[in-house]
Design a protein that fits this description.
6-stranded parallel beta sheet; Rossmann fold; 3 domains
Length: about 350
């Protein structure tokens, strides 16, 4: 969702008519997960994807039909044959819901929640055609915005509240008017938070890359020359203050904290604060000699061996990185591995058993 909002806003301001395609179900191993979205304008512009390129051309065709007819459709794509012109995927079946982009109370509530990083759940009716496209949203106050059907709403609300705070999706199948109704639910969790101490060149690249994968990025530096908005145009927040003091005023529970200052007078207070917090990840640049000095100063501040062992240094995965861009990739890769609990080994080493169990294709 977040990756298409910029295009959605811009094209709405330009008066473009748009259709929104949402991947709602995947059976097998597909390039994208449920919740992947794609925008198509009447003039033929597009943003996002639902399959990594396998069915997008057909989705564009159907989206234009949706705009012309003014009604939503649920498109199903199976495994394609060997024909060059066949539409489909190589090893999965997917369902894509395509609807005209229209203002609604539920969508407005979700947009507001995303803007403030508040957890929310969006429910959209897929079938029957009499309900398709109707939506409701549930926020942290557990209140509902919008409606799908007076009879179905209670069950939908219960399922939505159960998902609140996660980043999961599901399709509810509910009895309706002698038949059934399908409702797609998508939960939007608060984004991963990255706090960078030090506005180095590596920090500039890391902030940009982190924003590209949807993280909320805060950059802290006491040196004004390093903390120019021109250097960090994508960052959500710039804090001009001593890192140790600034970090003490932030909620670091579950956050990723990275110290890139190359200066112990900033490095040590920042790490001391981060290590005493509930941060999920604490990393710092520096040589073994620098780290030894850093640990000695942290011990003087009362931190024990268990706390010091939390510092990930040298920071990042061993990718042979040399440039700031390569180092940023290594740092971000390590953070994602920590987030997922994976060991960061090559996917091919996971074996065919994992692939057969439904490992997602890259």
């Amino acid at each position: 969702m977040r990756d298409i909002l910029g295009d959605l806003d811009r094209w709405q301001q330009q008066g473009e008519a748009m259709a929104l395609a949402t991947l709602v179900q995947v059976h097998g191993s597909a390039p994208r997960l449920p919740g992947a979205r794609m925008l198509v304008t009447r003039s033929g512009k597009m943003a996002g994807s639902v399959s990594g390129g396998c069915v997008e051309n057909d989705v564009v065709t159907r989206a234009l039909e949706v705009l012309n007819e003014g009604r939503a459709v649920l498109a199903r794509y199976g495994i394609a044959d060997d024909s060059e012109l066949a539409v489909g995927l190589t090893c999965a079946e997917i369902e894509v819901f395509i609807e005209p982009v229209q203002a609604s109370a539920a969508w407005n509530a979700v947009r507001a929640a995303l803007a403030t990083h508040a957890p929310t759940v969006l429910a959209v009716a897929l079938t029957p055609v009499t309900l398709a496209g109707r939506s409701l949203a549930v926020g942290v106050d557990a209140g509902a915005t919008g409606t799908i059907d007076d009879v179905l709403d209670p069950a939908i609300l219960g399922a939505a509240r159960a998902l609140l705070g996660s980043d999961e999706t599901t399709v509810l199948e509910l009895p309706h008017a002698g038949g059934s109704a399908a409702v797609f639910l998508e939960a939007f969790a608060s984004p991963l938070r990255l706090v960078i101490s030090g506005g180095s060149h590596t920090a500039v690249v890391l902030a940009r890359m982190a924003k590209q994968i949807g993280m909320h990025v805060t950059v802290i530096d006491a040196r004004s020359a390093y903390l120019q908005r021109e250097r960090f145009p994508e960052a959500d927040r710039l804090v001009h203050a001593a890192p140790g003091k600034a970090l003490a005023e932030l909620d670091l529970d579950g956050a990723f904290v990275v110290s890139l200052t190359h200066d112990l007078k900033f490095d040590v207070p920042a790490l001391a604060t981060a290590l005493r917090s509930g941060a999920l990840y604490v990393g710092a640049m520096g040589s073994q000699k620098t780290h030894a000095r850093r640990c000695a100063e942290l011990e003087d501040r009362g931190l024990g061996s268990a706390e010091l062992a939390r510092i990930r240094t040298p920071i990042g995965l061993d990718l042979g990185s040399r440039s700031p861009e390569e180092i940023a990739v290594a740092i971000l890769a390590e953070m994602l591995a920590v987030r997922s609990g994976h060991d960061a080994r090559p996917l091919r080493e996971r074996g065919m058993a994992a692939s057969g169990a439904g490992a997602r294709a890259r």
